[in-house]
Amino acid sequence: xxxxxxxxxxxxxxxxxxxxxxxxxxxxxxxxxxxxxxxxxxxxxxxxxxxxxxxxxxxxxxxxxxxxxxxxxxxxxxxxxxxxxxxxxxxxxxxxxxxxxxxxxxxxxxxxxxxxxxxxxxxxxxxxxxxxxxxxxxxxxxxxxxxxxxxxxxxxxxxxxxxxxxxxxxxxxxxxxxxxxxxxxxxxxxxxxxxxxxxxxxxxxxxxxxxxxxxxxxxxxxxxxxxxxxxxxxxxxxxxxxxxxxxxxxxxxxxxxxxxxxxxxxxxxxxxxxxxxxxxxxxxxxxxxxxxxxxxxxxxxxxxxxxxxxxxxxxxxxxxxxxxxxxxxxxxxxxxxxxxxxxxxxxxxxxxxxxxxxxxxxxxxxxxxxxxxxxxxxxxxxxxxxxxxxxxxxxxxxxxxxxxxxxxxxxxxxxxxxxxxxxxxxxxxxxxxxxxxxxxxxxxxxxxxxxxxxxxxxxxxxxxxxxxxxxxxxxxxxxxxxxxxxxxxxxxxxxxxxxxxxxxxxxxxxxxxxxxxxxxxxxxxxxxxxxxxxxxxxxxxxxxxxxxxxxxxxxxxxxxxxxxxxxxxxxxxxxxxxxxxxxxxxxxxxxxxxxxxxxxxxxxxxxxxxxxxxxxxxxxxxxxxxxxxxxxxxxxxxxxxxxxxxxxxxxxxxxxxxxxxxxxxxxxxxxxxxxxxxxxxxxxxxxxxxxxxxxxx
Length: 697
Known about the structure:
CATH class: Mainly Beta
Oligomer: single chain
């Protein structure tokens, strides 16, 4: 790995370095790779047969078979292996869907949006799989209560606590230790669930750094890293068909390290704090109602304390961002005369945004009084007709949005979904979605780490909008095989391009509104998915062919240019084989293969001496943004899992190897002026993982 930190901007270079060093020493398996100056173009997921390629249902039982860098079950890593989904930075939690930006995806827990989902610089996500009952990933044909998004929605639902007996889990992997327990407090009436995870990354890094890092290397000999998440939930059943729950989620990531020579100290971090009160009741056989009240805060911080010269001491600069949201929602589901059903609801959000609040001097506090505030009120409803062969649904939303700068909009949305089976094995699916998003994400560098700014729409930037259409075929048999194939087209408007993301991470965010360019995007593609979900051998094969571009009036003379993560071809193959099991032992192997087109980079096309100007150095020029496609991305992952069964416990041991080929997949290229050559940055090398888990039941 070779790079110059000043070419990426603080703290991007250090972030990428830490991402490598936190791999418990395996990063040194990647040798520096150079390029000359001549550039050349270069089952896990289970779903119902009627869901097609618009809705995927992710089974918790299969999460343990997924091969991830940390060996941790991770819903987002599951999603990244599906058709239409393009990952961004290798091994991290960031992704784009059907040509949308990363910030156009929504991830929610029990209906509350999580704005920062990364743990350990994106190597895993903040929601432990043990607390979930089921997860859905929707990319089209959205329901009426899916809103404020443009691409996809990962709907995570927490599991109810156990009202009859206590059970729990303890586990330990490379970089994460966790505990989970659920127990009745009052049998059949009141239960409690608690989950806690903590990462020993600081201890591991510091122990390795003393042996592997020289004092003159310029790399930190030690770091401070605090990574944890806490989850708690109380479930109360006051009556037979009513339940009240109170849940809380707290996550925190923070990192600090001293720069070369001790002249600076850099720190960064992000956190989430969510509390939710939820009620659900069956008012009658036909009517079910639910109501929610929540408070949700996400914050990120970057601070640099530096001594520059003898006469300038303790200079402290920082950027902090925060989103604080209060939400209330009510929903009613009414079963009419079969096969008709209706859903109606209302949602209100009051949100305060503090994007890039600046600080200087010795104090690390920021005045949050200057928040940008917005209100989003929504009325929604849908009408469904569903039989064993057909699903037809019309969903409508009416959004009323208001921001502090006097910006007001009334924005309607509508969605259509139609599934029909001609016979027992062959069907057709069609969807149309008109979507709107009222929060903009100003994506920074490096992508994949939760340090983006989130800002409301306003007079400077209208809400983002998209129209998406999809049509496909579905087929399945009674032996567990299913196949889906379809094509989509998507048109986006109001997209925000943050013209100087590198300067944002270099503490240059004053006047960030003036650095925005508003434009359009378009994407179309073909998606294929073959799955086998039954038997000893299970797996899936997912392929996507797509093309995505962007057009901004102030960029490339208003001409279209490729989207950075427009990977023309994406192929993901997964297979798991379970050997014959006994009453006391079971084991199996898994393999995952990924081959995709490389993403785009913006590289200088050449150099020139300006005519008539008194300068001696050549200047660089560019053809257009994202003018060079990196080489193809290829990765093979392998794992072996075994389970020892005891009367009251199960003991699971997993061994995994992420990037078993130790391939140097390119993330970026930089020009080394002194060496006169291109240097390639690769993120994750071969990455072994071990996880031990004991389940009490």
